[in-house]
């Protein structure tokens, strides 16, 4: 199987802190891959490195075999790598419609278009509708984003990333902080992501991880601790010791 | 079902591009003042120019979130460009506008790379610095600019070869108003385009804007350049209609005044600059009739009061009023979220 | 040559004393206080007015040039500035420009728009020749005083309890609050102290920098350069930036008078291009 995303010996130091410690990692094409690890293990840092928000101290990042280590964040997106954020990064004053429309316009090259009124192209509209339906946002399309319930905001967070039509999607704790009642809706949309998108999921909710992922990597203190199938990782006593043990207690 | 939504999506996106009744009225009234207030044309001309200048600031401040302490640099450059051109025999006003716009745009383009490099603080320093450098150049190159005495002997030809400037300022006002209106239409079109949407997204959250694939820096360079060109045109209008340019066009108080103008009218919906210009000029008239000397003190006081009273809230009120009149949704900007990479 | 270096150092040290308060308020509260120069002007006018109208000797005015702006700063911080810490930079900029304009107009109204001249005591006038280098007495005096202040500041920051709390608050106000540090008190104290230092700088600098109602506007760019080039996380950053700026400005105006005014801007641009995060700031 082809490799969608790969890192080789990736290192990130913040001063004295080794937040990413020589991580060599592969995400297969079409994978449902979970990355787990205790708080502060360096998961978000890893995503920030992959997407170019921060620069690695050492190592390489390959997207579909091509080196993207020095590429600017927006160019990585244009090459098919999108992400969500652990803490919502939305546009508070814009509506979900505008937010999704923005991402769709950008993808189709419309962002340089300064004379056409937004929304005057048929295929863009269809795309927006498709995404709004997929992420169950049709009823709140014209609300101000800052007024949306938290669960809807989390959905929008994924919807924007998805609107970039990525081939690799990185989800940073999509269900974090979502109240139980709104959780189901969110998980359903994550489960229904199309299979041709390779997904790397960071999550603390073990039920979600086990039901969603076919492979799991465990990150501890910035380094890859182990990797395997759901079966292997969930029965690995060392993983229980460093991670599951803690999270069960939480 | 899905076609219903599609219709809804389209109308709700396209609606922003439509002109509301209030807007049409606004411009009709502006046009009417040409005939109804003949004895006020000189001050109305100033209002149109300041309004255009503030509009140019709104493009970068309201739509891209760039705080500038030196927007007068572009205004002044435009004024000198147009003035010097006219002085040397190129008396056609439109040619002057074009050259002024180009000169200011080039300056904006070049300096944008410095402005966009750093934090808010760096932006303040660079914008202020650019204006000061220009002021110093204009001061020292007196063979070209007239230095501290100002640029004398600017004489303009008729607008489009037909309308001579008159002492009542009627041609001047009509000319400035038309230019402002045309540039306003362009700006208005831009802010509802996908490009304009991307600017707003950068202002609200540059981190996420990058994450949806927006080349943030390039967009900002573009809008900074455009805004500079607008400011240059405003400066050129002043030079042409008053037929005089002094160092004052580059002074710090110009940059501060235009911020005040924009803030009075409200940031981020384009009409703020125009409405602000009206209020500002009226205030200036009233206050200087009452105590001519310490106008600066009152400007300062107004700024302090506006901020303490909650600029956001005041703006919201103006905008709601406007929304009532204009009959369409005007979106309000949020204060910039202060997230650092660490908090992602 | 050495004379110019010497003058430049004196000038730079003055700039540091003037601007360090701003660096601290920026670093501590992330507050862009463009009105910082107004406090410096206040100090300058305290000295000028006391000397010229009441005949108080120069040295005796200096403590007041510190205290009056400090109190002014304290009052304004507690009443107005405090409310704006959480606001956007635009609001802070507008507010502080407003204050500057009011200060400029108020001083103009009260004392007129002319330069305030101060008569230095005779023992500070003139130059002496040390190993062939012309050394201005007043500039030596400034270097000694400012140098002592720099050392004292550094000691306060590194050795005292207050200093360690201040550093903790600069590093991360939320954590500092969690540790039971009264951040608001620290804000007020540093703001007042910074304003006082600016006032002292204004008084000491009246002779060299000039003093008139437009002082806060004229020196705004210098302060901004010091804090952006020097950064706000240390004291040494702004200090070195001030020295650099002082020397460059003096040397530029001496050697190439016609373009001397542009030297500092060139410096600013070079630094920005090479080190956008500031000359002395660690890259994160
Ligand atoms: N920008 C940064 N500067 C300094 N330290 C950071 C930064 N971002 C993350 N860290 C540190 O790196 C470590 C890993 O953080 P993070 O990647 O957020 O962990 P996780 O997402 O696994 O909880 C933490 O100790 C965090 O404090
Ligand atoms: Mg995380």
What labels describe this entry?
heterotrimer; A: 250 residues; alpha/beta; Rossmann fold; six-stranded mixed sheet; four-stranded antiparallel sheet; globular; B: 344 residues; mainly alpha; ABC transporter involved in vitamin B12 uptake, BtuC; 15 helices; 0% strand; disordered C terminus; binds adenosine-5'-diphosphate; binds magnesium ion
* Amino- and carboxy-terminal Cα gap of chain B: 37 Å
Mean pLDDT of chain B: 88
The small molecules bound here are: adenosine-5'-diphosphate, magnesium ion
The CATH topology of chain B comes to ABC transporter involved in vitamin B12 uptake, BtuC
For the record, the CATH class of chain B is Mainly Alpha
The number of helical elements of chain C comes to 12
Helix content of chain B: over 70%
Q: Characterize the overall form of chain B.
A: globular
Please give the share of residues in helix of chain C: over 70%
Task: Provide an overview of this structure.
The complex is a heterotrimer of chains A (250), B (344) and C (284). Chain A has helices at 43-51, 73-78, 96-107, 122-134, 150-163, 180-191, 206-212, 230-235, 237-249; strands spanning 3-14, 17-28, 32-36, 58-63, 66-67, 81-83, 168-172, 198-202, 215-220, 223-229. Chain A is α/β, with parallel strands linked by helices. In chain A, helix 3 packs across helix 4 (122-134) and helix 5 runs parallel beside helix 6 (180-191). Chain A is globular and about 55 Å long. Chain B contains 15 helices and no strands. Chain C has one domain (2-274): ABC transporter involved in vitamin B12 uptake, BtuC (Orthogonal Bundle), CATH 1.10.3470. Chain C has helices spanning 2-29, 36-54, 58-79, 89-111, 137-159, 161-171, 173-178, 183-209, 215-218, 220-230, 236-255, 263-274, and strands at residues 127-130, 133-136. The longest helix of chain C is centred in the first third of the chain and has 28 residues, at 2-29. Chains in contact: A-B, B-C. Magnesium ion binds next to helix 1 of chain A.
């Amino acid at each position: 199987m082809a490799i969608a995303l790969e890192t080789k010996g990736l290192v990130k130091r913040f001063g004295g802190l080794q937040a990413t410690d020589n991580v060599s990692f592969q995400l297969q094409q079409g994978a449902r891959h979970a990355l787990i690890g205790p708080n502060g293990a360096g998961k978000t840092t890893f995503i920030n490195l992959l997407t170019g928000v921060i620069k690695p101290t050492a190592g390489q990042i390959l997207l579909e075999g091509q080196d993207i280590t020095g590429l600017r964040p927006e160019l990585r997106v244009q090459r098919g790598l999108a992400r969500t954020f652990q803490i919502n990064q939305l546009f508070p004053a814009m509506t979900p419609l505008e937010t999704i429309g923005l991402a769709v316009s950008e993808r189709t090259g419309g962002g340089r278009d300064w004379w056409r009124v937004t929304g005057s192209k048929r295929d863009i509209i269809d795309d927006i509708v498709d995404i709004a339906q997929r992420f169950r946002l049709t009823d709140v399309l014209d609300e101000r984003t800052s007024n949306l319930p938290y669960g809807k905001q989390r959905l929008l967070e994924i919807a924007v990333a998805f609107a970039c039509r990525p081939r690799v999607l990185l989800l940073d704790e999509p269900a974090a902080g979502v109240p139980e009642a709104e959780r189901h809706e969110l998980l359903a949309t994550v489960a229904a992501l199309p299979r041709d998108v390779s997904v790397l999921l960071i999550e603390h909710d073990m039920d979600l991880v086990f039901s969603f992922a076919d492979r799991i990597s465990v990150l501890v203190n910035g380094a890859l601790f182990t990797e395997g199938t759901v079966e292997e990782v969930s029965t690995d006593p060392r993983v229980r010791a460093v991670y599951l043990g803690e999270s069960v207690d939480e | 079902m899905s076609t219903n939504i599609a219709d809804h999506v389209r109308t709700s996106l396209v609606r922003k591009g439509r002109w509301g009744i209030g807007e049409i009225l606004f411009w009709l009234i502006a046009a009417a003042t040409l005939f109804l207030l003949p004895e006020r044309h000189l001050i109305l001309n100033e209002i149109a120019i300041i309004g255009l200048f503030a509009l140019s600031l709104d493009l970068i401040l309201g739509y891209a979130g760039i705080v500038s302490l030196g927007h007068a640099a572009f205004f002044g450059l435009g004024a000198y460009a147009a003035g010097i051109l006219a002085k040397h025999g190129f008396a056609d006003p439109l040619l002057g506008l074009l050259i002024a716009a180009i000169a200011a745009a080039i300056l904006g383009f070049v300096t944008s790379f410095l402005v966009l490099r750093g934090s808010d603080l760096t932006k303040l320093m660079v914008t202020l610095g650019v204006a000061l450098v220009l002021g110093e150049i204009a001061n020292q190159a007196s063979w070209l600019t007239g230095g501290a005495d100002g640029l004398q002997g600017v004489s303009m030809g008729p607008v489009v070869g037909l309308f001579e400037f008159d002492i009542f300022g009627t041609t001047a006002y009509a000319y400035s108003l038309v230019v402002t209106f045309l540039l306003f239409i362009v700006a208005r079109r831009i802010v509802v385009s996908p490009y304009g949407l991307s600017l707003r997204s950068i202002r609200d959250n540059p981190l996420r804007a990058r994450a949806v694939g927006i080349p943030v820096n390039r967009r900002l360079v573009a809008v900074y350049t455009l805004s500079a060109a607008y400011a240059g045109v405003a400066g050129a209008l002043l030079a042409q209609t008053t037929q005089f340019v002094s160092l004052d066009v580059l002074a710090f108080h110009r940059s501060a005044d235009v911020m005040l103008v924009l803030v009075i009218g409200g940031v981020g919906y384009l009409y703020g600059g125009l409405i602000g210009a009206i209020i500002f000029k009226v205030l200036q008239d009233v206050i200087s009739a009452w105590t001519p000397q310490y106008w600066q003190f009152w400007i300062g006081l107004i700024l302090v009061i506006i901020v303490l009273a909650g600029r956001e809230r005041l703006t919201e009120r103006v905008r709601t009023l406007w929304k009532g009149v204009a009959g369409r949704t005007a979106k309000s900007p949020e204060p910039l979220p202060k997230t650092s990479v660490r908090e992602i | 040559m050495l004379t110019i270096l010497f003058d430049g150092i004196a000038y730079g040290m003055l700039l540091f004393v003037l601007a360090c308060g701003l660096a601290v308020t920026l670093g501590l509260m992330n507050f862009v206080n463009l009105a910082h120069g107004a406090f410096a002007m206040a100090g300058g006018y305290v000295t000028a007015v006391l000397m010229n109208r009441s005949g108080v000797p120069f040295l005796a005015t200096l403590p007041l040039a510190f205290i009056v702006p400090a109190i002014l700063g304290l009052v304004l911080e507690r009443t107005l500035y405090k409310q704006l810490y959480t606001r956007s930079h635009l609001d802070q900029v507008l507010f502080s420009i407003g204050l500057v304009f009011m200060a400029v107009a108020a001083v103009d109204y009260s004392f007129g728009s002319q330069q305030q001249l101060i008569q230095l005591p005779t023992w500070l006038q003139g130059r002496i020749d040390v190993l062939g280098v012309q050394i201005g007495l007043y500039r030596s005096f400034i270097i000694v005083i400012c140098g002592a202040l720099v050392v004292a500041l550094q000691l306060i920051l590194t050795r005292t309890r207050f200093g360690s709390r201040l550093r903790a608050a600069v590093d991360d106000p939320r954590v500092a609050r969690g540790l039971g540090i009264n951040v608001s008190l620290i804000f007020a104290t540093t703001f007042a102290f910074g304003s006082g230092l600016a006032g002292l700088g204004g008084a000491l600098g009246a002779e060299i920098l000039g003093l008139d109602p437009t002082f806060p506007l004229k020196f705004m760019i210098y302060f901004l350069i010091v804090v952006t080039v020097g950064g706000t996380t240390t004291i040494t950053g702004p200090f070195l930036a001030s020295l650099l700026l002082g020397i460059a400005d003096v040397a530029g105006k001496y050697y190439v008078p016609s373009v001397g005014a542009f030297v500092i801007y060139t410096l600013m641009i070079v630094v920005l291009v090479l080190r956008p995060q500031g000359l002395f700031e660690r890259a994160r």
